[in-house]
């Protein structure tokens, strides 16, 4: 008679792991956490972005362009010129300086239409109205990042960490509290990114299923097995194209994301065909599925972009509208002029920061400086809104991106390619950072990096997950790693609380403001 094997001793767990298990061991608790965690980080983001949103009640920095353009779009259908004194009159609700002559603008209209929604709801003199939609989309970006991180890590803990870090990051907060285009751009780029990931998860199993079916076909169909099927039913790819087309209709830099994420879809499709044993997988993915994916993604993107110009197309007063009898030809000529402006933009600016400086965080932008010298109750007070991010989140994200790049290169050398958890953040950074390195002489600013921040945080969340340890690691390794992560997160929260006054324009003592300037270029 064989004696039964002795029972295995229970595996030791850390407090972190017991807390995480509490949320998944019980089905009811799991369902609660499934909506409670994303709701918490989204509401936290909304609270930090919407509180005292009307301050300052004046046009700050480049709001001078987009607030007036937004209001003229809602009234004229196109961006109109404004007379002298408009910046002072508009906060009083006086839009008499708006003219019917078309104004030459160099960004597509969608972001300004979106800014105009809040103005239409609350009136042209409401500074909260100018910024309402950017604050809402900034809060929803936190939710989208949570979903992306959950999709990649399959961990609510680290998805919550990722969403929470974006919720309390200074650059995300500042760019959600100002009527500029970059926060709106970030939302659509991140949304398109999520849709690309959802398409990958839907299409790859479908591809395997179709290839298996081909291999089970009759012998007469054997030559077909050299190639895989062409997938037309990819609704998430269509949605990604529409979202990235909307991003491009906010700022042309959205085109970079459309191109990079489109290439990513082709590469993942090619690798899936190789794993499935398709002999001609490179040409199969590029020459057969590639054109189909292009149509499914670029077609909706072009439609979304063109629809954003509807007001300009159906009216007669927009700048350049009358250069040709055919509206689409006139629009094309206008775009040629816009392109010439962008490639030739090179002028001195006190807050200009070339892209090579961005990882070092050398020159954030001062969006607004108040003029109330005693606003905090004592002499020598100052109120500032600076686009400096939380330094621990920023530098931690940069370090995490470098770590993931190292892991990726090492995996290629050792012929052990990494899974998407370790590579997807790098794809996002290629789309949102690398193109700016190609225009070293153009006048650009550090706050453009708000589109990069979600991908830096995604890289950081993956790196923190590695630091926290796997269940297969020794108990002491996991305990030490998880304590390190917990301490880091606590310090990050404290740093955000420390910087919050200079992200929201609170009046503070001048020495208090000075200790926030950790580098000379932060002043």
Give keywords.
two-stranded antiparallel ribbon, 523 residues, three-stranded antiparallel sheet, mainly alpha
Layout of helices and strands, plus pairs?
Layout lengths: L14 H11 L1 H24 L12 H14 L3 E3 L3 H4 L8 E5 L7 H13 L4 H27 L2 H13 L1 H7 L5 H34 L19 H14 L5 H22 L5 H28 L1 H5 L12 H17 L22 E4 L11 E6 L4 H23 L6 H13 L1 H4 L15 H16 L6 H30 L2 E3 H5 L9
Antiparallel strand pairs: 1-2, 3-4, 4-5
Could you explain how this protein is built, in words?
- This protein is mostly helical and 523 residues long.
- It has a domain at 25-180 and 347-522.
- It is 62% helix and 4% strand.
- It has 20 helices and five strands.
- It starts with 14 loop residues before the first helix and ends in a 9-residue tail after the last helix.
Summarize the structure.
This protein has 20 helices and 5 strands.
The shape, in one word, is: globular
Q: Averaged pLDDT, please?
A: 88
H/E topology pattern:
HHHEHEHHHHHHHHHHEEHHHHHEH
Count of DSSP-assigned helices: 20
Strand order of the largest sheet: 3-4-5
Helical residue percent? 55-70%
- Radius of gyration from the alpha-carbon trace, in angstroms: 26 Å
Low-confidence stretches: 6-10
Q: Assign the structural class, choosing from mainly alpha, mainly beta, alpha/beta, alpha+beta, or little secondary structure.
A: mainly alpha
The total count of strands amounts to 5
């Amino acid at each position: 008679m064989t004696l039964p094997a002795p029972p295995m001793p229970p595996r030791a767990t850390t407090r972190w792991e017991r807390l995480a298990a509490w949320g998944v061991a019980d089905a009811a608790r799991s369902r609660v956490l499934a909506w409670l965690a994303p709701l918490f980080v989204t509401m936290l983001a909304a609270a930090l972005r919407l509180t005292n949103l009307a301050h300052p009640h004046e046009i700050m920095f480049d709001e001078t362009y987009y607030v007036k353009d937004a209001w003229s779009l809602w009234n004229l259908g196109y961006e109109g010129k404004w007379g002298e004194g408009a910046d002072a009159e508009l906060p009083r609700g006086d839009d008499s300086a708006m003219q019917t002559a078309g104004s030459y603008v160099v960004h597509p209209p969608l972001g300004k239409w979106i800014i105009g929604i809040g103005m239409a709801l609350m009136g042209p003199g409401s500074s909260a109205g100018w910024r309402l939609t950017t604050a809402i989309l900034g809060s929803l970006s936190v939710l989208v990042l949570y979903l992306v991180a959950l999709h990649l890590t399959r961990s609510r803990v680290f998805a919550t960490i990722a969403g929470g870090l974006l919720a309390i990051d200074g650059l995300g907060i500042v760019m959600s509290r100002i009527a500029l285009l970059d926060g709106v751009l970030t939302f659509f780029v991140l949304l398109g990114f999520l849709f690309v990931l959802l398409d990958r998860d839907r299409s790859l199993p479908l591809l395997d299923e179709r290839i298996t079916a081909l291999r089970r076909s009759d012998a007469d169909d054997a030559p077909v097995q050299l190639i895989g099927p062409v997938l037309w039913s990819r609704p998430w790819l269509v949605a990604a194209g529409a979202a990235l087309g909307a991003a491009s209709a906010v700022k042309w830099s959205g085109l970079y994301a459309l191109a990079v994420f489109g290439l990513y879809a082709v590469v993942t499709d090619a690798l899936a065909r190789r794993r499935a044993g398709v002999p001609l997988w490179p040409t199969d993915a590029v020459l057969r599925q590639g054109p189909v994916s292009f149509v499914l993604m670029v077609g909706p993107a072009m439609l979304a972009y063109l629809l954003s110009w509807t007001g300009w197309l159906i009216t007669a007063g927009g700048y350049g509208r009358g250069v040709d009898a055919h509206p689409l030809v006139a629009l094309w000529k206008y775009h040629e002029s816009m392109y010439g402006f962008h490639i030739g933009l090179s002028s001195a600016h006190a807050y200009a920061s070339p892209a090579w400086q961005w990882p070092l965080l050398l020159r954030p932008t001062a969006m607004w400086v108040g003029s109330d010298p005693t606003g905090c109750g004592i002499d020598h007070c100052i109120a500032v809104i600076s686009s400096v991010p939380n330094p621990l989140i920023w530098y931690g994200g940069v370090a995490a991106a470098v770590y993931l790049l190292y892991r990726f290169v090492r995996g290629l050398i050792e012929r052990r390619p990494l899974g998407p958890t370790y590579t997807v953040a790098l794809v996002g950074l290629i789309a949102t950072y690398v193109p700016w390195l190609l225009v070293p002489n153009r006048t650009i600013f550090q706050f453009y990096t708000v589109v990069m921040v979600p991908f830096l945080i995604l890289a950081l969340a993956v790196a923190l997950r590695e630091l926290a340890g796997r269940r297969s690691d020794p108990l002491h390794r996991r305990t030490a790693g998880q304590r390190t992560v917990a301490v880091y997160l606590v310090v990050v929260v404290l740093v955000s609380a420390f910087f919050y006054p200079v992200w929201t324009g609170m009046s503070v003592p001048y020495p208090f403001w000075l200790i926030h300037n950790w580098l000379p270029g932060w002043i």
